[in-house]
Task: structure prediction
Amino acid sequence: TTEIAIITGVVEFGEKRVADVMTPRDEVFALPDDAPAASIAAQVARSAFSRVPLYRGSIDEVVGVVHAFDVLRANGDERPPLRPAHA
Result:
């Protein structure tokens, strides 16, 4: 059943080490927050991600996240809305 699958997934996840589920820093796909709208749209379209962090200065300063659907709605003509990044 669905409940058993969920519980099994939680137990399996609980047995993993942090290193097993984290993305190495040099493999994180993120964009600078001052990138032009057309550049954001093109790079998000080429990526395999639905949510992309935007940073200011360095990846250590994430200022928010753009969603691929918002990028599509903006059509590359305007910047997509910046959503909060959850810690």
The chain has a mean pLDDT of 87. The first strand starts at residue 31 and ends at 32. Residues 25 and 60 are 10 Å apart (CA to CA). The chain is about 40% helix and 15% strand.
